[in-house]
Amino acid sequence: MARRNATVEELVARADVLLEALPYIRRYAGSTMVIKYGGHAMTDASLRDGFAQDIVLLKYVGINPVIVHGGGPQINRVLEMLGVEPQFVRGMRVTDPQTMDVVEMVLGKITNEIVTLIQQHGGRAVGLSGKDGGLIQARKLTVTTEESGRRTKVDIGLVGEVRAINPAVIETLDRADFIPVIAPIGVGEGGESYNINADLVAGELAAALQAEKLILLTDVEGIRGPNGELLSTIDVEQAQSLIQGKVIDGGMIPKVECCLDALRRGTKKTHIIDGRLRHAVLLEIFTDAGVGTEVVLQRDAGSTIARRRPAR
After folding, report:
1. pLDDT of residue 312
2. Under a CB-based contact definition with an 8 Å cutoff, are residues 231 and 222 in contact?
């Protein structure tokens, strides 16, 4: 590789960046991190490339990344090409057998693209559906709607929820130095496929693997407080208060609740970060300030809601 001209000051600044990362590399070596990959980070070529580089670097410094990806916009495009109008109930896709076929096809294609990109950057990745090895065991999700005070159960087809995770599949790949890339499709007791929300799958995997971190890539900077300020760290109690006060609302609620559930079940820390920022994963894990919102089980006494704890 050709050497590039740089001033001494620039070289020292680069060394400082590496040294800032050193304590985190030392601390997290050997740990597992579950990363939900979705949103704009999947559609922009530069961001896709940067994400793959981040994942390969994590593996080379001894961290075991596990990738769970979504694909809602891509699924919508294919359905529209087939003349099928996507339908949703309470934010969940109505999934009849024809739609399920499209979901499996599109998510499988996305899995292969992510695997290829990781391997182009020197990593070794394996693409999985949750059906492989019984990784994600699922059951049909029951949805209840409420209108004019009446509660009604709605059948939204082959949409599932996680019944159990088989962590042995992931642990085997980790030991062999492969990076798992997982499509959020579960398998029912009768072998049927279920479409499952990718955030929920990531949270369930993080809990089952007792992951060091669960990281959700989104299209927002993180969680904002009552005055619109970006919150660097919040704990479970504060998150619940923000939800009750409707400061956290809309599509952010299920993401935050996914983090809270993972924390209660043994994941050490969770993060909601802006996937539109190149190398957001590395910046959140390996820098003192981070770039998103860290959600933890309980904050240290005396810390403030808007300041990240030193020991991340």
Report:
1. 47
2. yes
